[in-house]
Amino acid sequence: FIINGTERVVVSQLVRSPGVYFDKVADKTSDKDIVSARVIPSRGAWLEFEIDKRDQVGVRIDRKRKQSVTVFLKALGLTSEDILTEFAGFDSIAETLSKDTILTKEDALRDIYRKLRPGEQVAAEAARALLDNFYFSPKRYDLAKVGRYKLNQKLGIDKPLTDSVLTVADIVATIKYLVALHRGDKTFEGVRAGKPADIRIDVDDIDNFGNRRIRAVGELIQNQVRTGLSRMERVVRERMTTQDIEAITPQTLINVRPVVAAIKEFFGTSQLSQFMDQNNPLAGLTHKRTLSALGPGGLSRERAGVEVRDVHPSHYGRMCPIETPEGPNIGLIGRMATFGRINAFGFIETPYRKVVAGRVTEQIDYLTASEENEFRVAPASTPLNADGTFSQDRVLARRGDGGEVDLFPADEIGYMDVSPRQMVSVATSLIPFLEHDDANRALMGANMQRQAVPLVRSESPVVGTGMEGFAAIDAGDVVTAQKSGVVLEVSADVVTIQLDEGGTQDYFLRKFDRSNQGTSYNQRVVVSAGERIEAGEVIADGPATENGELALGKNLLVAFMTWEGHNFEDAIILSQDLVKDDPLSSIHIEEYEVDARDTKLGKEEITRDLPNVSPDLLKDLDERGIIRIGAEVRPGDILVGKVTPKGETELSAEERLLRAIFNEKSREVRDTSLKVPHGEQGTIIAVKEFNAEEGDDELGSGVNRRVVVYIAQKRKITEGDKLAGRHGNKGVIAKILPVEDMPFLRDGTPVDVILNPLGIPGRMNFGQVLETHLGWIAKQGWKVEGTPEWAAQLPKAAFEAAPNTKVATPVFDGAFEEEIAGLLDSTNPTRDGDRLIDRSGKTTLFDGRSGEPFPAPISVGYMYILKLHHLVDDKIHARSTGPYSMITQQPLGGKAQFGGQRFGEMEVWALEAYGAAYALQELLTIKSDDILGRVKVYEAIVKGENIQEPGIPESFKVLMKEMQSLCLNVEVLSADGTAVNLRDTDDDAFRAAEELGINISTRFETSSIDEI
């Protein structure tokens, strides 16, 4: 969705499905179980039943006080005889009935009304209406189709799905199930799909995906429209009663504002409507496939326990067990598994191959978690014969009801998995050798792929998993042909295709647009004129894609070794070549906007004519006062000149005379130009201008003109940037070495990256080592001689490969260790006829500084490395003076506010421990909130004098004022016992500041950071 000009995603919500739930909890005081049932509607009041330790059956209506269930049944119109015949043989109901003194339906209704609305007069009509409204009126109560479906399934009844309210039969069936569960029955007679069937009696697991459903976008918006319409209805009803019948028109009656407001509010402020993550194609795709248990009608972070967050057997093939955030949301936010889909009721289904009498068919059935319970499911890797029968008599399979994995006879198997990557999400299925990684690290790997920044030149991984093409195309960032044809002409931003069916079709490309995250969104043509294109083929790559494959990082030559301790604790050492040749450079685009508004004192103006600004600063502005495209800008440069009217001050006679003579206007306006903020620089690539007069009406009230400026910068890799592999192996660049100092191979090739080998054993993400070896093999190319044992599983086509071949090792179905060792022995030799790396995967490296070999062999190979969005340029920050907080007069905090570094309580203790009194006094006074002192210090530094004694900090005065407000007479005494007068020093400070020409107003405007 595009809301207010930004792309947003509405995340699907995971909620508990409406239906009936049974539960058993052991009682703390006795050895009995307390059995309860809850009927939860899609909207309306809950209905809860409970059998306590005295075997009394109670009912709670709308979460109020507990009552006897027999009173409730009598209120619904059953007599005592009806109850006894209906529940014959159940002692708990007979027991409850014997304690019940109410006889007629009227009394029962009155009793219920008394308990629900205590202290009110009871009319028989009101009492009847109360129950009707609670459970039997479609206006107030709605089970929804899914609720009715779950109710039918659980209670073994056969009502049409359109019955969205409860019936007496439903309530009786629920109580029957409850007392049967209490008695310990295993099954009872019911109806399924119109046929009699034995219904299993069991408690429910609320975390099972059979009991949790997805509320997708449509349903979430529908709920908003419903509330909007009901508000509108209220307004219409009110107006109908108040307005004159003759004068009524539909326009006067109906006000659509509540509906519009409800929809706007949902998209603008709902927890489920999120700013789209556009770091790279994978991030966008994953964001759209996200499932969240948070949000309105869901859970909250604080209340969610461990059980809800945990991985459940029913997640298999429905929600990924790996990809979830670290931190407070762990387990509450998940991603859909690769093959999952959502059915009409909102339950997630996953595909299985049907097995008939021990033979796997080509038929594929999508099953929900509750349907899967009935079957035994074999894994996708089960060996089969040519005719589709299982090659073994007993097959390893899992029982559908979350049971253990066990060996079962082949004819008992009902289904078989479709694919080994069925259980994981898209991002997780892009990790090669996932099966060799610890789950916690795989989680980081999956999450960090979404933070990879698109590089200037994308390069798809040498070692992939075969999912790269699907991910890139399904993300929608590559341009694919809708119809077949021949490419007619190609330019940088449009491709024209002559269609087979006649006519032409133009595909327009986005060039250097800014994504939501400030990365560059650029599409590049991959076809040439005259080329034949089939429907669905890739015409142009998007950001972070190469030839229609996802390409998040770069294949770099890595060595696992220590180097002078510079890669201690996950630090990374890079070669200078990676800075020089730009393989890890990325383009970032920032947008800055300025509005010219109407103020109380007059209109703001966008102009080149700025007061007290040297012509040197205006050299790149055009006659409108807006910077030209292509200008190089640095911090503090003017992007858009703007002046704001100043309040007229009383002028002295002399000044009035000078004004009259020179017609001097410059004192009436102040310069509020848009400037480049601290730490930002780059090239102007676009300027957009909006005018209220020209009908750009969405500017908002009081805004006459808006100018938006786009600045692009190329960021080379540098110390402090964060790099990561796909296995959760992340680190920060600590040193960039000259290429001649890097360790090199026997043939003189210097390595690109040095990683610390200690990052592997404790983290247990061994997949990165296998990826490194396989990356080396793929880069060198290989040729297998004969048919060795280890190559039995290799496809015939893979016995020989040219250098730089791309290889895929699918998740849970990848290359084996002996295959990798065998291929290392079969790699193509160098010109000298030797192999640099043998089956150990290690080789001798030479020190670039001395040329001496390192004492032990070192693992070397190609790893796919991503540059993450945590860039040092966005984090580095320094301040000398700047804005201060209004109340405490202390500097603000944070880079965005151009704040200072907090010197907190514990830091004060540290300096106290060293007795560094003067350093401490400076920090707490003149560097913080001693207003007069800090101005005086500035003055002394400017004039080159000695710095004076610090004064009294503002926060001390605030403390005194607070104590005085509590009626405590506090005064400050000097060393000799005389009272010190704490005047407000503001006037002195402002006087001193004015003499120095410093503006120390506490209002902090982004356009002028360098105020002090």
Automatic annotation (TrEMBL):
The keyword Acetylation does not apply. Keywords: DNA-directed RNA polymerase, Nucleotidyltransferase, Transcription, Transferase. Residues 1-259 form the RNA polymerase beta subunit protrusion domain. Residues 481-897 form the DNA-directed RNA polymerase subunit 2 hybrid-binding domain. GO terms for biological process: DNA-templated transcription. InterPro entries: DNA-dir_RNA_pol_bsu_ext_1_sf, DNA-dir_RNA_pol_bsu_external_1, DNA-dir_RNA_pol_su2, DNA-dir_RNAP_su2_dom, DNA-dir_RNAP_su2_hyb_sf, RNA_pol_bsu_bac, RNA_pol_bsu_CS, RNA_pol_bsu_protrusion. Its EC number is 2.7.7.6. It catalyses: RNA(n) + a ribonucleoside 5'-triphosphate = RNA(n+1) + diphosphate. Residues 16-188, 274-342, 899-973 form the RNA polymerase Rpb2 domain. Signal peptide: none annotated. The keyword Nucleotidyltransferase applies. Gene3D superfamilies: 2.40.50.100, 2.40.50.150, 3.90.1100.10, DNA-directed RNA polymerase, beta subunit, external 1 domain, DNA-directed RNA polymerase, subunit 2, domain 6, RNA polymerase alpha subunit dimerisation domain, RNA polymerase Rpb2, domain 2. CDD domains: RNA_pol_B_RPB2. GO terms for molecular function: DNA binding; DNA-directed RNA polymerase activity; ribonucleoside binding. PROSITE patterns: RNA_POL_BETA (PS01166). SUPFAM superfamilies: beta and beta-prime subunits of DNA dependent RNA-polymerase. It comes from the Bacteria. The RNAP catalytic core consists of 2 alpha, 1 beta, 1 beta' and 1 omega subunit. When a sigma factor is associated with the core the holoenzyme is formed, which can initiate transcription. This is DNA-directed RNA polymerase subunit beta. The lineage of its organism: Bacteria, Bacillati, Actinomycetota, Actinomycetes, Micrococcales.
